[in-house]
């Protein structure tokens, strides 16, 4: 985009890039009313109604069969009469119209919007949808940075260019047109794979894109260039800058600065005096929409683990059955984590903490990566043979590392033939020993 572009055309028509940091198309994508929208997928009859998420299992809808029609009818909990200390995680836009919002006490929301439906939170479902929408985006634009459960930054600088075309040679209008086209493709892909809508902001950097994605929510698409900053960004509250929290905003207000524009027009030396050299300088740069941070492609998890501390210390001698059961459960939970997140691992580790708080760990690497509970338990059982078990046990944990993505493991397995699964070995927690 023109003002930020570092490319210059030199005589002879050769384009050279001056400073790649300013020559970018960065998107910020944020899902709309994320937890609530996931819930509406399973309860479509609630569409268009005020709904808040934040209840516990007692607020699970009850299902009954209508004797007349045989259809399943759900009974939902109304917010009115809510008593407790819960807070809203999120609210549908219909509930927001009554003033309900994230982090508000449910009792307060009940006064504002008594007819709203209250639903329990189901983090596993939200994590599942989070992975799905991120994978859908990655298939179009692989350079994504995780910024929480429902949002990502995406580097679109080189996405959707015509064959042979170079981003640095594009006119501002062509870059803007490409940004719209790619963003629409991403929004369609997210909707097709999840049934959910999102809002996207596209600008030359992460700071501006995070602001832009909110400008037209829900289902928004906003493309801004540097030329739009005075009209679109400066009127906004200084708090809209990611990094200016409530404390800084209060201090700014006390100094007579409410909007980003007022911040931009204040003397940078005065800002440094008030907020220190680095923060003052950053606030000045941010208010002018300048930000050089790169999109950091999401890092893979290094390890996954499950552990539990017992209510009382357990002895291998006296509590063998309980230990065996818990051991199996931990392996099953770990396998579920791997399957849900789409990973396999090769190094299985065991952690034991004794009643004297001494902790030991052992691990074992197996031939083929796995996400299978039985294979994990087998390897963990091997580890168990290498730890002293005379003392009572306070904590038991199972860990897996050497992770690879499911699809990479499948590709690797296709090249491997005839590696047998190791024999099952009973665990020291098991009866047969
Ligand atoms: P947000 O993206 O801030 O909010 P949202 O997706 O619900 O609504 P929108 O983006 O359309 O304004 O947060 C994403 C999810 O994170 C949200 O659905 C629930 C959760 N969350 C909390 O649990 N507590 C909070 O205080 C906030 C802000 C979000
Ligand atoms: Mg959101
Ligand atoms: Mg968000």
Please tell me about this protein's structure.
The chain is α+β, with helices and mostly antiparallel strands and 433 residues long. It contains 14 helices and 18 strands. The protein has 4 domains: 24-31 and 126-230, 2-Layer Sandwich (Alpha-Beta Plaits), CATH 3.30.70.270; 38-120, MutS, DNA mismatch repair protein, domain I, CATH 3.40.1170.60; 234-287, DNA polymerase, domain 1, CATH 1.10.150; 303-414, 2-Layer Sandwich (Dna Ligase, domain 1), CATH 3.30.1490.100. The protein is 34% helix and 23% strand. The strands form 5 sheets. Strands 10-11-3-12-13 form a 5-stranded mixed beta sheet. Strands 14, 15, 16, 17 and 18 form a 5-stranded antiparallel beta sheet that branches. It has a 4-stranded mixed beta sheet with strand order 7-9-4-8. Residues 30-31, 34, 150 line the site of one magnesium ion.
Bound molecules: thymidine-5'-triphosphate, magnesium ion
Record field, number of beta strands: 18
Poorly predicted residue ranges:
1-22, 417-424
Radius of gyration (Å)? 27 Å
- Under CATH, the homologous superfamily of the largest domain reads Reverse transcriptase/Diguanylate cyclase domain
CATH architectural group of the largest domain: 2-Layer Sandwich
Shape designation: globular
How many H/I helical runs? 14
The end-to-end span amounts to 71 Å
Helix/strand-derived class? alpha+beta
Give the strand line-up of the largest sheet: 10-11-3-12-13
How many domains? Answer: 4
| Biggest sheet details | 5 strands, mixed
Mean pLDDT across the residues is 89
Percent in helix: 25-40%
Q: What fraction of the residues are assigned to beta strands by DSSP?
A: 15-25%
What name does CATH use for the topology of the largest domain? Alpha-Beta Plaits
Mind telling me the CATH class of the largest domain? Answer: Alpha Beta
């Amino acid at each position: 985009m023109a003002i930020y572009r570092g490319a210059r055309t030199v005589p002879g028509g050769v384009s050279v890039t001056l400073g790649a940091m300013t020559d970018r198309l960065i998107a910020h994508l944020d899902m709309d009313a994320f937890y609530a929208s996931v819930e509406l997928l399973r309860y479509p009859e609630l569409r268009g109604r005020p709904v808040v998420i934040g209840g516990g299992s007692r607020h699970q809808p009850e299902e009954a069969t209508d004797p007349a029609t045989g259809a399943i009818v759900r009974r939902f909990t109304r917010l009115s009469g809510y008593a407790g200390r819960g807070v809203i995680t999120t609210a549908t836009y219909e509930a927001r119209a009554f003033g309900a919002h994230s982090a508000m006490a449910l009792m307060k929301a009940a006064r504002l919007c008594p007819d709203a439906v209250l639903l329990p939170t189901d983090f596993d479902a939200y994590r599942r949808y989070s992975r799905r929408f991120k994978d859908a985006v990655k298939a179009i634009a692989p350079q994504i940075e995780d910024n929480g459960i429902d949002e990502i930054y995406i580097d679109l600088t080189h996405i959707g260019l015509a064959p042979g075309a170079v981003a640095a040679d594009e006119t501002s209008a062509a870059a803007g047109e490409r940004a719209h086209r790619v963003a629409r493709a991403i929004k369609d892909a997210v909707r097709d794979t999840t049934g959910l809508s999102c809002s996207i902001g596209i600008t030359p950097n992460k700071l501006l894109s995070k602001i832009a994605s909110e400008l037209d929510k829900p289902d928004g698409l906003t493309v801004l260039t540097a030329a739009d900053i005075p009209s679109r960004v400066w009127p906004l509250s200084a708090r809209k800058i990611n990094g200016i929290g409530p404390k800084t905003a209060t201090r700014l207000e006390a100094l007579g600065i409410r909007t980003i524009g007022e911040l931009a027009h204040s003397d940078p030396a005065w800002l440094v005096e008030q907020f220190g050299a680095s923060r003052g300088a950053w606030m000045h740069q941010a208010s002018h929409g300048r930000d050089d941070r790169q999109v950091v492609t999401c890092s893979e998890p290094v390890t996954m683990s499950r552990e539990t501390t017992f209510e009382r210390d357990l002895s291998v001698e006296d509590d063998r059955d309980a230990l065996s059961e818990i051991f199996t459960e931990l392996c099953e939970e770990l396998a579920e984590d791997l399957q849900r997140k789409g990973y396999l691992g090769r190094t299985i580790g065991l952690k034991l903490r004794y009643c004297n708080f001494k902790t030991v760990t052992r691990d074992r690497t197996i031939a083929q990566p796995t996400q299978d509970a039985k294979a994990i338990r087998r390897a963990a059982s091997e580890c168990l043979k290498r730890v002293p078990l005379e003392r009572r046990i306070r904590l038991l944990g199972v860990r897996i590392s050497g992770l690879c993505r499911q699809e990479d493991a499948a590709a690797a397995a296709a090249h491997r033939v005839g590696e047998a699964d190791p024999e099952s070995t009973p665990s020291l927690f098991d009866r047969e020993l």
